[in-house]
Amino acid sequence: MKIGVSSTGQAISSSADPRFGRCSHFAIYDTNDNSYRFISNNAQQAGGGAGIAAAQQMIDEDVEIILTGNMGPNAYNVIKGNGIKVFRIGAATIEKAIQLFREAKLEEISEAGAAHFGMGRRWGGI
Amino acid sequence: MNLCILSGKGGTGKTTVAVNLAVLMQACYFDCDVEEPNGFIFLRPEHITAEKVFVEYPVIDSDKCTLCGQCARACQYNALAATKKNIMLFPTLCHGCHACEIVCDPGAITYLPRPVGSVEKGAAHGVECVRGIMNVGEHMAVPVIRQLLRNLNISKNNILDAAPGTSCNVVNTLRRSDAAVIVTEPTIFGLHDMSIAVELLRQMNIPFAVVINKSQNNDAMIQKYCSENRIKLLGSIPYAKKAAEAYSEGQIISKLPEFHLSYASIADKVQEAFSWN
Amino acid sequence: MELTIISGKGGTGKTMIAVALASLSNNSVKADCDVDAPNLYLYFDGNDIKKESFYAAKKAVIDSRFCTHCGICSTVCRFDAIYDYKIDEINCEGCGACALVCPEKAISIKPQKSADIFLTKTSNGMLSRAKMTVGSDGSGKLITQLRKNARKYLEDANILIIDGSPGIGCPVISSVTATDLVLLVAEPTLSGINDLQRVAELCRHFGIPTLVCINKYDINTNITGDIKNYCAEQGITLVGEIPFDETVMKSINELKPITSYENSPASIAILRMWEKLKEIVKAIQQRKIKEMDENLGLC
Hints:
The complex is a heterotrimer.
Chain A: E1 2-7, E2 25-30, E3 35-40, H1 50-60, E4 65-68, H2 73-81, E5 85-88, H3 94-102, E6 107-108
Parallel strand pairs in A: 1-4, 4-5
Antiparallel strand pairs in A: 1-2, 2-3, 5-6
Helix pairs in contact in A: 1-2
Chain B: E1 2-6, H1 14-25, E2 28-31, H2 39-43, E3 46-60, H3 70-74, E4 80-82, E5 87-89, H4 99-103, E6 109-124, E7 127-134, H5 142-149, E8 158-161, H6 168-174, E9 179-184, H7 188-203, E10 208-215, H8 220-228, E11 232-238, H9 241-248, H10 257-273
Parallel strand pairs in B: 1-8, 1-9, 2-7, 2-8, 9-10, 10-11
Antiparallel strand pairs in B: 3-6, 4-5, 6-7
Chain C: E1 2-6, H1 14-25, E2 28-32, H2 40-43, E3 46-62, H3 72-76, E4 82-83, E5 86-87, H4 97-101, E6 107-122, E7 125-132, H5 139-151, E8 159-163, H6 170-176, E9 181-186, H7 190-205, E10 210-215, H8 221-234, E11 237-242, H9 246-253, H10 265-298
Parallel strand pairs in C: 1-8, 1-9, 2-7, 2-8, 9-10, 10-11
Antiparallel strand pairs in C: 3-6, 4-5, 6-7
């Protein structure tokens, strides 16, 4: 089966991206042959509906599982409608994320998170 | 004659000037700032009639749909997503273009209307008042502006109170305008943003003039810009805390003795500049 | 930490306050998302360290070499954007319907340049801004890019201050989605309270923590009272009440933050508001760290 992971880069050592709709790449991992493929996220350039476009891309890639940090309600409804399951990943590399999933250490996302989450969550003192 | 009042920068006094000119010149008032329409606060029109503004959205007949996903692929706005079980629609992203219908081979797509705003009409101070209101949460004001402006009676004189800025909302208002007045304030912001409006008007080939609002005897910067660029300056309305207070109460300021003269003079100059009948 | 400052109505003093807060924070990144009237850079002198073209809205382009003047394209266009076998770029929404039906495949949809984006290094920190080509659209996507560019510098700064645009449409939506905090700058006028309510509803729609400050509150104490009641009803925290102050006009003309004028009543009120803001920001950060820890705990 195929697993999609939102990624900040194109290597298995890249950090998983907590955003879904506007991450730069997706890692597609195939459990059959333990292989990784990286594809560019088409939704990055979308004017609107980025989450939807990214979800569509996952469907077109025949992915059955998605690993990401947060998924907005529109994308989540599209994914759920296709019977795809989503699991929450925190700070981890792509390789580590897959490992954690296989060890059943990830929590399934059972309802949509905040919309437009991927607009940045950093903080510092004032 | 359709006269558009615009500003580039928000808060310079577009609506104040537009409302007062409409009353003084007895012209129909159109509030084209459909995201935040304020003109009726001052005009307080009566006998209001309202009509909803609708846009179309696609409805897919699941009996005919083969789930080929062509519609989702054709949609430039990501308003459709094709899952293995059904086609999902996200209405607020839909522009109503019908591209999905064009590519649907089995002809599974029809359309239904959904409301995105309304157009209201009334009368006050002897003039017809019309405004558009976009529903909160909608992304596109243009369908509301277009329906609003279908009410323009070309045999009458109309004042079109535009949205702030210079992007598509304003452009769609200017498309129905014969002339324009830029309302600016005598600050560097006012000047900076006015120059953006000037560029737009020149590109659209619309004759225009300028009015300075909230003047504190510091018009020199704007005057210089206008004279260097051969732009007609119609007048200057003085800043006064009293004006701000009256405005805060929604008063028609030109009815106050202290301000009547400035506005009446500008109304005259507008009529002169644009050969208003 | 991202703070978006909007107002619904234009001219309430949003930019004046954004400039003051940026100045008080000492080390802030700024994003001027009022792309129709970008004024922040007038206050903050600096050098443009990056400039790039920004392409957004797609428009249809007819290749006249292949056009046979059959006119089918104009029959499907819903936006009155095709006449005389030419595309009206202002009306065209780039939907591609015409391209789909053209029997000669003479139409394509291409992204248009809608702005130049800049990263400007100022003495107060980085400023992300844009200059739109006149009459251009696509502001929502542009704002997303401006915020993205600014965010790269957030590691070294304390706060990202986003100066938003008036209204409640796409550009405003793009300024507030997934920001950490919204500060609504209200003015006590009938127009002001009307617009405040609409933009507050927008923030609630997107579930964003919202604060209000009332600028020029003493112009109309009745309406100031109404605004306070509205905030109490909606559970929105009032963080500041700034008096009408002629020094503000002076500060605009001299292009200095109002907080440079120590005795200015407006400046004093803004300082007080800043202290309150810092408390609120701290609370939000602590809550987020807690959430993050909980997430990491699962990994």
